[in-house]
Amino acid sequence: MARGFFITFEGGEGAGKSTQIGRLAHKLRDKRYQVAVTREPGGSPGAEAIRHVILSGAAEPLGPEMEALLFAAARSDHVEQLIRPALRRGKIVLCDRFVDSSRVYQANVDAALLEEIERVSLNGVMPNLTLIFDIDPEVGLRRAAERRGADQADRFEKETLAVHRRRRQAFLDIAIKEPKRCVVIDASADADAVENAVTAAVFGAIEARSDVDAEAAQGA
Ligand code: TYD
To answer: How far apart are CA 203 and CA 33, in angstroms?
Structure first.
């Protein structure tokens, strides 16, 4: 069976993940890899429907457990409908946010419950590589506001700077705990420098995994 390669992009708001995902997808396709680009929450029709409920803030009054369950429901649908089938076909899947965002953003939920719903939603699918885009939240939030207009912050962007700082540290802690899977990228550098760091990490990881079916992952 062809085996793909699953790469996730994590980090705070305004870290430039989507720009870099676009550039990386282009570069991989140039090298004749088959690439699927996706994002969370969302990425499949069922998950996109849940995305709207969460990001509008409609689920916030229902409590953090409910929000965590909704993220997990969206993830489960996304994994089964899009990610697992793409990996089975030998594709390289690039996903903007995934399970580490739940670990970091839903950290106010009981850890045992969070672990349990993580297990169910992933159903055995974990990223081969996770790039953690690290940036001072003050800089990131400014960038995010410039991108979409200051008055339209979503449910999570609206939170205090102290909360965003805690999240930054929580992402870095994951990288320390799982050094084989995670690479920290300095997202404060200019876009070309970030691109170079991303390219080095991704091609290094693909080439290092000798069991990745390069023939299948390439346009065959
Ligand atoms: P989005 O606009 O896609 O964010 P960004 O451009 O920052 O990636 O919004 C996703 C928001 O949802 C973001 O603030 C992080 C949050 N989130 C969680 O809280 N838990 C999760 O599991 C995921 C995937 C995202």
So the answer is: 12
DSSP single-letter state for residue 56? T
| Residue 13 and residue 144 in contact, taking contact as beta carbons nearer than 8 Å | yes
The domain that contains 26 carries what CATH number?
Answer: 3.40.50.300
Q: Is the CB of 6 under 6 A from ligand 1?
A: no
Indicate the number of domains in the chain: 1
Read off φ and ψ for residue 167, nearest 5 degrees.
-65, -40
Regarding the beta carbon of 71 and ligand 1, being less than 6 Å apart is answered yes
Distance 51 CA to ligand 1 centre (A): 9
10-residue block means of pLDDT along the chain (220 residues)?
86 94 98 97 98 95 97 98 98 98 97 98 98 97 84 80 96 98 97 98 90 50
- The answer to whether the CB of 101 falls within 8 A of the CB of 10 is yes
pLDDT at 218: 52
Nearest CA to ligand 1 atom 10: 41
* Domain, as residue range, for 165: 5-219
Whole-prediction pTM value? 0.93
9 in ligand 1 pocket by Cβ < 6 Å? no
DSSP 144-205: HHHHH-GGG--TTTTS-HHHHHHHHHHHHHHHHH-TTTEEEEETTS-HHHHHHHHHHHHHHH
